[in-house]
Amino acid sequence: MFVDNPLDSSELIFPTLEVCHILGFAVTLGTIALLDLRALGLGLKRQALGDLARDFAPWTLAGLVSIFLSGPMLFSSDPDMYSLNRAFQFKMVCLVLAVVFNYTVHRKMVQSGKSTAWSKLIACVSLLLWAGVVGGGIFIGFA
Ligand code: HEM
Q1: Does the residue 77 lie in any domain?
Q2: Which of 8, 68, 76, 137 counts the highest number of beta carbons within 10 A?
Q3: Residue 48: pLDDT over 60
Q4: How far apart are CA 12 and CA 7, in angstroms?
Q5: Closest ligand 1 atom number to CA of residue 28
Q6: Ligand 1 centroid vs 18 CA: distance in angstroms?
Q7: Residue 6 covered by a domain
Q8: Whose CA is nearest to atom 38 of ligand 1?
Q9: Is position 133 within any domain?
């Protein structure tokens, strides 16, 4: 049974979804990256890591909601192409690892508020995983 994709009803829907997608990850990755820079001692030194984490948590989640609403809709525009796209596959693997890491090991680290070698390592892994998601997203068009 062939179902019309609402994305095909107007040329404006896809770019509008991309705007929601990019704004979503700008907020999510921006708030997480600020926590990582704080954990690395590279900024926001007057604020406690735990306080920043509490203040940023709703924004991180709001961005993820925007991403997880827009992403699958973008995907639905050409599921066969995207699911076979190596960059997209790499992005999804990084994304699962990054989200699980963020809400387990990373959350424990920011809530402890300690600035140890271990918390610096966690901050570096976090930045690398999210960079992998973005890189995978950008290379979708080149893979
Ligand atoms: C934090 C999570 C995510 C980040 C940081 C992210 C990042 C990106 C980036 C940087 C692009 C390229 C934008 C461009 O070149 O215009 C992109 C495109 C895309 N993303 Fe995501 N994304 C995320 C989650 C998702 C999810 C969960 C899905 C779907 C299940 C998804 C599906 C797509 C699709 C289909 C495109 C391609 C759009 C195109 O062909 O231009 N993304 N994403």
Answers
A1: yes
A2: 137
A3: yes
A4: 9
A5: 1
A6: 8
A7: no
A8: 74
A9: yes
Count CB atoms within 10 A of the CB of residue 19. 11
Q: Return the pLDDT at 6.
A: 76
Name the domain count of the chain. 1
Give a yes or no: residue 4 inside a domain. no
140 lines ligand 1 (CB under 6 A): yes
Name the pLDDT band for 80 (thresholds 50, 70, 90): very high
The tens digit of pLDDT for each residue in 108-121 reads 999 998 789 999 99
By residue range, what is the domain housing residue 74?
11-141
Q: Which of 131, 102, 133, 132 shows the shortest CA–CA distance to 39?
A: 102
In the reported structure, the alpha carbon of residue 48 is separated from the centroid of ligand 1 by a whole-number distance in angstroms of: 32
Q: How far is CA 103 from CA 57, 98, 106, 142, in A?
A: 10, 9, 6, 31
For 28-95, the DSSP string reads: HHHHHHHHHHHHTTSS-TTS-HHHHHHHHHHHHHHHHHHHHHHHHHHHHTSHHHHHH-HHHHHHHHHH
Model confidence over 7-42: pLDDT tens digits? Answer: 878 889 999 999 999 999 999 999 999 999 999 999
pLDDT at 5: 77
